[in-house]
Specification:
38% of the residues lie in helices and 14% in strands. The protein is of the alpha/beta class and 85 residues long. The protein has a domain of 40 residues.
Length: 85
Amino acid sequence: MPEALAFLRGPEFNLAVLDVKLSGPDADSLGVAALLAAKGTPFIFLTGMRMDDVYARQFPHAPVIEKPYDRATLLDAVHRALGIP
């Protein structure tokens, strides 16, 4: 996660895709999500576990995609995150 936080100090970008759980005990991307939300940068959560929805609900504006997913599902989530009909 330190790398992601450092990256947020760089140039702005249009969208982020975050895996809810990261490797390591109690590791998640919620801190990155909070910074993105504060900056107004849209993001999407990916998750391999239904339980991760509990974490993702802290950011109700962010689409949540369960793994495995297909291209159409990801594209739909990108459109929703960016407000594209």
